[in-house]
Design goal:
Oligomer: single chain
Radius of gyration: 22 Å
Structural class: alpha+beta
Largest sheet: 9 strands, mixed
Helix content: 10-25%
Strand content: 25-35%
Distance between the termini: 39 Å
Number of helices: 7
Order of helices and strands: EHHEEEEEEHEEHEHEEHEEEH
Length: 244
């Protein structure tokens, strides 16, 4: 893998393309101990050593982040009006041009993966993979065993679509019920529409896991952190037993 030295430095947050060109002209950048001034010079960061003012530059192609998404923020890379999850990132992370893996509704909180690894994102989002996603929700109304059975069979949404089976667990039942729901699809407003199908309303929704990865509960709303190497491997190696 080779890339232009100016693009590599810009991607790593060492300045705009214009600023990086000035760095190169100053003779501050070396590849394998040879000064490089040509912005178009290609480099293989996995095989060659790049230094800036004598300091070795560590290059990463991909970035993997876990965010505890707050309400009121859009799961998008940009929006002309509203704040997006990318706006919550530090500039040093934004330079990698990451994107949210799937979406959480604007008023939904919880686990959101953000990466620039398109291959991994595709694996996690592909309908053929049936990657499970678990949500905690507060429901306006009494959730019953009949609802558990209905969800286990799959329910019919307002547009006639029949969902795949969902695993509904009642944590507390009453006028307001607390539940956990695991589904393997990601239809628009799916959790809310599934409860509407059984005559109930979601008043609070939070995603607590995706595939093998649980939300880090130490993250405050709006906070994020990089995934550990172990967590990245978990996601990459994750296989789902296709029972649906």
């Amino acid at each position: 893998m080779t890339l232009r030295i100016d693009k590599m430095l810009a991607n790593l947050g060492y300045g705009s393309r214009k600023e990086v060109k000035q760095l190169l002209k100053s003779g501050a950048v070396k590849i394998d101990d040879v000064i490089v001034k040509d912005a178009k010079q290609h480099v293989d960061p996995n095989k060659q050593i790049v230094t800036l003012n004598g300091d070795v530059i560590e290059y990463r192609e991909f970035i993997y982040l876990m965010m505890n998404k707050p309400q009121g923020v859009l799961s998008a890379t940009e929006d002309s009006v509203g704040e997006t999850v990318i706006d919550l990132l530090e500039l040093e992370d934004q330079v990698y041009e990451p994107f949210p893996v799937g979406r959480l509704d604007k008023d939904t909180e919880g686990l959101l993966l953000i990466t620039n690894d398109g291959q991994l994102a595709h694996r996690l989002l592909s309908p053929k993979k049936h990657v499970p996603k678990t949500y905690f929700a507060v429901i306006d109304g009494e959730v019953t065993d009949a609802d558990v059975s209905a969800f286990a069979e799959g329910v019919t949404l307002d547009d006639g679509y029949e969902t795949k089976p969902g695993e509904l667990v009642i944590l507390k039942s009453g006028i307001r019920s607390d539940i956990e729901l695991t589904i393997t699809e990601g239809k628009f407003h799916q959790v809310k529409r599934m409860f509407e199908a059984v005559g109930k309303r979601v008043v609070y929704l939070k995603r607590i896991s995706m595939g093998p990865l649980p939300l880090d509960e130490t993250l405050e709303l709006g906070e994020y952190r990089e995934l550990t190497d172990e967590e990245v491997e978990l996601l990459k190696e994750y296989q789902v037993n296709d029972k649906v």
